[in-house]
Design brief:
Radius of gyration of chain A: 13 Å
Distance between the termini of chain B: 36 Å
Radius of gyration of chain B: 14 Å
Number of strands of chain B: 11
Largest sheet of chain B: 7 strands, mixed
Shape of chain A: globular
Largest sheet of chain A: 6 strands, mixed
Number of strands of chain A: 11
Oligomer: heterodimer
Strand content of chain A: over 45%
Largest interface: A-B, 21 and 23 residues
Order of helices and strands of chain A: EEEEEEEEEEE
Shape of chain B: globular
């Protein structure tokens, strides 16, 4: 019930391409959906987040698309750059403020 | 602000020894979270505090694990006795509750624990 399923596990994209990472959840009580970016040896850092009353949020090259009825949300990275190479985690927060994380996607952007 | 501070950054110990991990949250934040990250299990929430009070410790794997938050600026996660399967990166995160606003969890750099 608390799971957040993330795919793909790894993704290789050419520089300038679009990276798309998908997540799905079951618990309709989740009220906040952040994406975290983690570089090797560092802690996760918030990248972008969305609330379920919004279908899309864009910040620079990063966009979250949210489909409440399908209980799915995705991260799109436009014009992907080698510096975007990192592990990306989707997450969902419940009313108790606990975050449940997806399993992560290792993104590699080739120069 | 210096962000969430964790110490030590790396810890190598032998099985059976006591390990204490430390965390200083961002000043003014009222929530503090302890996570464990492994390749096999990903990021797992162990325990979290609100205003220094433990709210949910259901993620703590065993009685060998304990966490305290004696004041708003300091928390510890203790493992006694440690076992090789406890080897992982342990993260501390903090957040500030904002009325009618979403809050953000800020993560520390983590402590990489290796139990031999």
């Amino acid at each position: 019930q608390q799971q957040v399923k993330q795919s793909p596990q790894s993704l290789i994209v050419q520089k300038g391409g679009i990276s798309i990472i998908n997540c799905a959840y079951e618990n309709t009580a989740f009220d906040y959906f952040p994406w975290y970016q983690q570089f090797p040896g560092k802690g996760p850092a918030l990248l972008i987040a969305i609330r379920p009353d919004v279908s899309e949020k864009k910040e620079g090259r990063f966009t979250i698309s949210f489909n409440k009825s399908a209980k799915q949300f995705s991260l799109h990275i436009m014009d992907s750059q080698p510096g975007d190479s990192a592990t990306y985690f989707c997450a969902a927060r419940d009313s108790a403020r606990q975050l449940t994380f997806g399993s992560g996607t290792q993104l590699t952007v080739l120069p | 602000d210096a962000g969430v501070i964790q110490s030590p950054r790396h810890e190598v110990t032998e099985m059976g020894q006591e390990v204490t991990l430390r965390c200083k949250p961002i000043s003014g934040h009222d929530y503090l979270f302890w996570y464990r990250q492994t390749m096999m299990r990903g990021l797992e929430l162990l325990i979290y505090f609100n205003n220094n009070v433990p709210i949910d410790d259901s993620g703590m794997p065993e009685d060998r694990f304990s966490a305290k938050m004696p004041n708003a600026s300091f928390s510890t996660l203790k493992i006694q006795p440690s076992e090789p399967r406890d080897s992982a990166v342990y993260f501390c995160a903090s957040s500030l509750t904002l009325t009618r606003r979403v809050d953000t969890q800020y993560f520390g750099p983590g402590t990489r624990l290796t139990v031999l």
